[in-house]
Write a structure and sequence with these properties.
heterodimer, A: 211 residues, alpha/beta, Methyltransferase, Methionine Synthase (B12-binding Domains), Chain A, domain 1, Rossmann fold, 10% strand, globular, B: 486 residues, TIM Barrel, 4-stranded mixed beta sheet, 18 helices, 19 strands
Chain lengths: 211, 486
């Protein structure tokens, strides 16, 4: 088996013990970081995505694969940056102000990492100002906001307004989610997308950066 | 007169041994003493510190002796009274008594006319309360939804104001925060005849919800402190998700949930010794494919039975869960999941079983699911009522009178007992085929819908006092003023 398909297998199996060694081996063999990403890591994650949708893999396995992915990316990121290769994209994620519920947001973070994104998780109970500050600091493609409560989901609207006022709204795609959030609500508050679960959040994020 | 004669009244169900329960208790005490919880409420941290807890920033650890003392202070048995003095609608909480009712806060509702799923609105509240009031096996009221068409901070106030006049069954009052808790209490106290009268005969239960894992939020504790100060019976119920916000194992999630609830218990008992306290929560699994909190999972019933046994072992009543489903519609899945969880809940004797009428994993409330479950609860209650054994029920004399080849239809004994020994369905059909066909060949679903429509068309709840009506108007007007600028 070629080292690249071994890397794919490692990702599918969520093999944290070997992923970095294999990645180093591939680099020693003279493979470019971009080739390792495109022909080793991504085919593995694509397979995971398909199996998850088919109900053959479950969340804990998917998250382990995502972890293996980000473990390999630790080695590849500086090389990719040095050779001027763009990452898939950057995502800033947070649970909005007043809300401490973050299991959904954490799932989205892990799923997006698995899809190859650089994820900046700015935590829970995040004020609109802190969202704005994070956008200025990290320059993301996508901002994801989460809320569980019917009261705090309104804060998504004021957060989007704060983005507009700070002049950064047009730089990013805004994606929202959380139990009480709906497609209608997302449209109403001027978000770019609504994701009904973590897997679809990662898919939508991927669509945004590939279009 | 018999001596040393043991009676088992009703079906006995016991899952865990005393040794296992003690191990769970020790686990909970260990979590509270060594890990502790984050308490986002200064007043509560002060109360806990004064009571003997260790406070380190927002982290609070409680020594086991303080938890044990709090458990001792909380009553196992107490009564929540109907607002109109109708003793049939009182809830007597105590060993062997399982009560049922809906749950709160679903964003959506199944419209009673169109049967379509849509956002829950203010005008749904009185309908739910009326159906609760009419259904014989539903004992307490919640609204099955979050009101979407009023100012977003006033949903709970409108909810209570809409339920209270439309059922005299005790309400379990969900609220966002302090302000709406005060609104709700004003209405209930007006009907009770003042705070003192309320304390003697409390007519509703206050509901608050901490956050898993191991966080007592500011909102939850603002509400808890208000309830404790006003001696309102209190539910403190976390909603941990096994594998997500709690350990994946049954014993692990039970241990964590109990620690989360007993943090509330300790604060409440320090503030108001002897306050009726109902331990929570809602325990289920994260579905590892859909990532939802599964309300129709067998593990929900199993976890809840374990939590019930733990609560009863330490002398607390429990806020049970059942009658709910992950199904999106009134179908076979809804009937299976709802009925089995209702039956399991009744067997465990969990004191107040809520979320009856939840569909779509708590995303949509349905009075149709509620009405169908009323039938399941009746069925389950007949089984858990058990078999009475005495000379009268043994009927040896009757058997002798009738003798071989006779029949029992005309016996006085039959007439005396057929109404109480048998359960009579409201919705399940037992007619022969021809009669069923003659009556329209209806499936269960149609009969459920017809029952709900019949209740809504005919049922008249007992009215509230005229002065309470006035208080409701004032409370709503003041609440609108409060949020006008927001």
């Amino acid at each position: 088996m070629s080292v690249l398909s071994e890397i794919s297998t490692c990702i599918i199996e969520g093999n944290l013990a070997d992923i970095q060694d294999l990645t180093r081996q591939a680099l020693d063999d003279g493979k470019e970081a971009k080739e390792i990403l495109d022909s080793g890591l991504m085919p593995g994650m694509d397979h995971v995505g398909v199996e998850f949708k088919a109900g053959n893999m479950f969340v804990p396995e998917v998250l382990r694969s995502a972890k293996a992915m980000s473990s390999a990316m630790e080695l590849l990121k500086p090389l990719l940056a040095a050779s001027g290769v763009e990452m898939v994209g950057k995502v800033v994620l947070g649970t909005v102000k007043g809300d401490l519920h973050d299991i959904g947001k954490n799932l989205v973070a892990m799923m997006c990492e698995g899809a190859g994104f650089e994820v900046y998780d700015i935590g829970k109970d995040v004020s609109p100002e802190d969202f704005v500050a994070a956008i200025k600091e990290y320059n993301p493609d996508i901002v994801g906001m989460s809320a569980l409560l019917t009261t705090t989901m309104r804060t998504m609207e004021s957060t989007i307004k704060a983005l507009e006022e700070a002049g950064v709204r047009d730089k990013v795609k805004v994606m929202v989610g959380g139990a009480p959030v709906t497609e209608d609500f997302a449209n109403q508050i001027g978000a770019d997308a609504y994701a009904s679960n973590a897997a679809s959040a990662a898919e939508i994020a991927t669509k945004f950066v590939s279009s | 007169m018999r001596t040393n004669y043991r009676v088992n009244s009703g079906v006995r169900f016991r899952m865990l041994s005393d040794d296992q329960l003690q191990e769970l208790v020790d686990g909970v005490l260990h979590v509270l003493e060594y890990t502790g919880l984050d308490v986002y409420h200064e007043e509560s941290r002060d109360i806990l510190k004064k009571a003997g807890a260790w406070v380190d920033g927002i982290r609070v650890r409680i020594p086991s002796h303080l938890v044990r003392k709090s458990l001792d202070l909380a009553p196992r048995s107490f009564t929540v009274f109907s607002r109109d003095g109708n003793p049939k609608n009182n809830i007597n909480i105590g060993p062997g008594r399982a009560h049922f009712g809906p749950g709160p806060t679903c964003p959506n509702f199944i419209d009673v006319e169109s049967m379509e799923r849509r956002p829950y609105v203010k005008s749904d509240v009185p309908l739910v309360a009326k159906v609760v009031d009419a259904l014989p096996n539903i004992d307490f009221c919640e609204s099955l939804g979050t009101v979407n068409d009023v100012h977003h901070e006033l949903g709970a106030t409108y909810e209570f104001a809409g339920m209270f006049p439309n059922t005299s069954k005790p309400i379990v009052a969900w609220s966002y925060d302090y302000d709406d808790s005060v609104d709700i209490h004003k209405i209930a106290v007006a009907e009770a005849g003042g705070q003192e009268a309320f304390e003697r005969r409390p007519n509703y239960i206050h509901y608050c919800e901490p956050l898993s894992p191991l966080v007592s939020t500011e909102d939850a504790l603002n509400k808890l402190v208000f309830a404790a100060k006003h001696r309102i019976p209190l539910i403190f119920t976390p909603c941990p998700i096994a594998g997500g916000t709690a350990p994946v194992t049954a014993a692990g999630i039970i241990t964590q949930a109990a620690a989360e609830s007993w943090m509330g218990l300790t604060i409440a008992q320090a503030l108001q010794p002897g306050l009726p306290f109902i331990m929570g929560g809602v325990l289920s699994v994260m579905d590892m494919s859909s990532m939802i909190l599964a309300y129709g999972a067998p593990e929900l019933s199993l976890f809840m039975a374990g939590l019930t046994e733990l609560a009863h072992y330490v002398g607390l009543p429990l806020w049970q869960t059942g009658g709910c489903t992950d199904s999106k519609t009134l179908d076979e899945q809804a009937a299976i999941e709802g009925s089995l969880s209702v039956y399991f809940s009744a067997l465990s004797g969990g004191d107040l079983c809520h979320d009856v009428g939840y569909t779509e994993s708590a995303m949509t409330g349905s009075v149709f699911q509620l009405a169908m479950m009323d039938e399941s609860i009746g069925y389950a209650r007949r089984i858990t009522r058990g078999i009475e054994v005495n000379e009268e029920t043994l009927a040896v004399e009757v058997i002798d009178n009738v003798g071989p080849n006779g029949h029992f239809l005309r016996e006085q004994h039959t007439r005396d007992h057929y109404r109480t020994e048998f359960w009579y369905p409201n919705l399940c059909d037992r007619r022969n085929y021809e009669e069923w066909e003659m009556m329209g060949s209806t499936p269960m679903r149609d009969r459920v819908v017809a029952r709900v429509h019949d209740i809504l068309a005919t049922h008249e709840p007992s009215p509230i006092k005229p002065e309470t009506e006035k208080v409701i108007e004032e409370v709503l007007a003041a609440a609108e003023d409060r949020v006008r600028e927001k």
